[in-house]
Amino acid sequence: MRQRPSWARDIGYHHFLADTAYSSKRIPMFTRLLVFSALHVLVGCSTPQGPAMHVIAQEINATLYEGLDRLSPGDSLEIKFSYASEFNQSIKVQSDGRCSFVGLGPLLVGGLLPEELQDKLQELYGAMLEGRDSTLSVIVVQQAAQRVFVMGEVAQPGEVILPVAADLTLLQALAIAGGPNNRTSWLGNTLLVRFDPVSKVQSSWVLDIREEHWGRGDTVLLQAHDVLYVPNTRVDDAGLFLDSWIRRMIPFPYFTDLFIPRGN
Q1: Whole-angstrom Cα distance, residue 63 to residue 44?
Q2: At 61, which helix (H) or strand (E)?
Q3: DSSP assignments along 203-248, one per residue
């Protein structure tokens, strides 16, 4: 007896073989070729394109950002001058990573450390105030929730909030997004995109997160602004869509030169 492939559990594979064997003389050869070509595509789509996540977890986790918190959209700031109080203001980082400052207008601040913004403002105001003391402080009054993005073939695609004092694993984020679509998701071809806020460089991995690998070895940890994409096709084929989508989806200034590499 022919071995039943795993993808055929729900499509009556044995009945299909029996029916095609019985009626092969009545079905035109062209039609049979089309049917078997379609089945070949189904088999190909079930083949993982990346390593199992527990195999590559240490490599991915080694890229986690462990530095000081950087300014992000939604952060509330207080700008206080020591000797020029007319420029004091309360301000929020906008969705595009910009803030509009009194006398200066909009500036990109997303991705900066508060100290870096403080130095930048002191230099700009120093030039504008012409000899007056421009000493100032940048205070983060409230930090916005940090997010990752889970998209593609999941029940509830969109943002997932990172817990404040705990790690968020890849599988936890997938569960919060409602889990994968069992009929269309290609878990063996899942894409993870990560951005380094210091170097402004992205890394990406295609990995196999099928259920058979859950609970085995190390797990993949996520950080703010990670993008997890569960496709229904090869990531190579989805490259242009992903590039365009991520540019629109993630409102952060140092993501504007994004590209999707075909691998690491």
Answers
A1: 31
A2: helix 53-61
A3: EEEEEB--GGGTTSS---EE-TT-EEEE-SS-HHHHHHHHHHHHHH
pLDDT at 40: 39
97 Rama sector, left if φ>0, alpha if ψ -120 to 50, beta otherwise: left
Domain 53-68+146-255 - what CATH class? Answer: alpha beta
- The single-letter DSSP state of residue 32 is H
Lateral strand order in the sheet of 76-81 = 89-92, 76-81, 136-142
Q: Tell me the Cα Rg of the chain.
A: 25
- Count other Cβ atoms within 10 Å, centred on residue 132: 12
pTM: 0.69
In CATH, what number does 76-142 get? 3.30.1950.10
Q: What token pair was written down for 209?
A: 């997160």
Mean pLDDT of the chain: 77
Place of tokens 């409230």: 142
Q: How far apart are CA 162 and CA 261, in angstroms?
A: 26
- Residues 151 and 235: beta-carbon distance below 8 Å: no
Question: Residue 185: exposed, middle, or buried by beta-carbon count in 10 A (0-12, 13-18, 19+)?
Answer: buried
Residue 243: pLDDT band by 50, 70, 90 thresholds?
low
Beta strands 147-152; 227-230: pairing state? parallel
Q: In what order do the strands lie in the sheet with 227-230?
A: 158-161, 147-152, 227-230, 190-196, 201-207
CA dihedral over 133, 139, 144, 146, signed as positive or negative: positive
Structure tokens at 123: 């230099």
